Amino acid sequence: MYLNNYLSKYSNENDLSLIITSLANAAIEISKTIRNIKKVNNNFSTSKTLNQDGDVQKPLDITADEVLIDFLKKSPVSGYASEEQEGFIDFKNNYNFIVFADPLDGSSNIDVNVSIGTIFSIMNKNELALEKAFIQKGSNQKASGFFVYGPQTTLFITIGHGTALFALDELKNQFYLIKEKIIIPKSTSEFAINAAYQRFWNSATSKYIQNCQDGEEGPRKKNFGMRWVGSLVADASRIFIRGGIFLYPADNRKKYKEGRLRLTYEANPIAFLIEEAKGKATDGNESILNLEVREIHQRSPLIFGSSEEVLEFKKFY
Ligand code: AHG
Ligand code: MN
Ligand code: MN
User: Fold this and answer.
1) pTM confidence score
2) Which 3 state secondary structure label does DSSP give 105?
3) How far apart are CA 29 and CA 70, in angstroms?
4) CATH topology for the 190-314 domain
5) 279 in contact with ligand 1, CB cutoff 6 A
6) Which of 190, 235, 266, 283 is catalytic?
7) DSSP string spanning 222-281?
8) Is 61 among the catalytic positions?
9) Which CATH number applies to 3-179?
């Protein structure tokens, strides 16, 4: 089954399907650009520009953002917010949908040919002014997903009928269904965290990870393995397929007291996909989808994955 058949099977909202199809076409273009990287001028040189958050923007971050805007402005979307834009873009029309995106997730992996991706979240405007529409809670999402530009180009998507995995058929330029109604295994013995920041962790994170590391001899009475790709989309893909827990907690570094990842275009879309696949996503205290949004670029701690393991982590809060 192709993506368009899936969308017509589960959604009667034509505009929503058109937006998702546009995002898929944008992702096909981004994926081809990455495969033919010499098209991206100077991608391997260090760029000088910074985004609104002070992160270095690489040419591919900007190219991906431009491709998304090109496709979305021809779609039934009234506004667009992204990691690479300071505010939101007002397309100046009366359509009922808004889109959030992390155009290129995993920037630090671009130069080393490791999987990177595009994350998106779609909400209704709900007759709000755009300023208000872009600070709705994650629980208002109508659809979310992410594309991974890896050995295969894949798409994890939810439109509220479970989470489905698609892969790009490069000859037909179409995404075909690999698996629908994905269920994340409840338990796991694999965790993902950047352990280089251990000295900045709070006691909840430290104790939880210590227990995992103590293995069979410790309170968990089993051995754990560790994986950290450094691209949220790649770590999340692994967790959808074989379970696991991902942690990017708040820590004591100045910039990351509220975590590093961004709520509206990283944590919310991932949390919606995770919950649709029967996993859990939390900031430690609250479910991610219930968090109040104050501004588009707000950061949030993000812990998600196998439900039993996320509950185990929450015991320390
Ligand atoms: P982005 O490239 O969009 O800025 O996101 C990178 C994120 C995420 O993909 C990853 O999980 C995390 O940053 C890695 O952070 P560290 O470099 O601190 O490990
Ligand atoms: Mn990102
Ligand atoms: Mn990014």
Assistant:
1) 0.96
2) strand
3) 11
4) D-Maltodextrin-Binding Protein; domain 2 (3.40.190)
5) no
6) 266
7) S--EE---S-HHHHHHHHHHH--EEEE---SSGGGBTBSSBIIIIIHHHHHHHHHTT-EE
8) yes
9) 3.30.540.10
Per the annotation, the verdict on 104 as an active-site residue is yes
Residues 6+ apart with CB under 8 A from 90: 78, 79, 130
Q: How far apart are CA 107 and CA 63, in angstroms?
A: 12
DSSP 299: B
Could you read off the pLDDT of 242-297 as tens digits, one per residue? Answer: 999 999 999 999 999 999 999 999 999 999 999 999 999 999 999 999 999 999 99
Q: Is 55 a catalytic residue?
A: yes
Task: Please give the Cα distance from 25 to 30 (Å, whole number).
Answer: 9
298 three-class SS: coil
Composition of the chain by helix, strand, coil, percent to 5: 40, 25, 40
Q: What is the pLDDT of residues 169-195, one digit of tens each?
A: 999 999 999 999 999 999 999 999 999
Could you identify the atom of ligand 1 that is nearest to the CA of residue 105?
Answer: 3
Distance 66 CA to ligand 2 centre (A): 16
Domains of the chain: which residue ranges? 3-179, 190-314
Cβ-based burial of 251 (10 A; exposed 0-12, middle 13-18, buried ≥19): buried
Q: Using the 8-state DSSP alphabet, how is residue 152 labeled?
A: S
CA 75 – CA 98 distance, rounded (Å): 11
Residues across the chain: 317
Ligand nearest to the CA of 114: 1
- One-letter amino acid at 192 equals A
| Spatial contact of 302 and 288, defined as CB atoms under 8 Å apart | yes
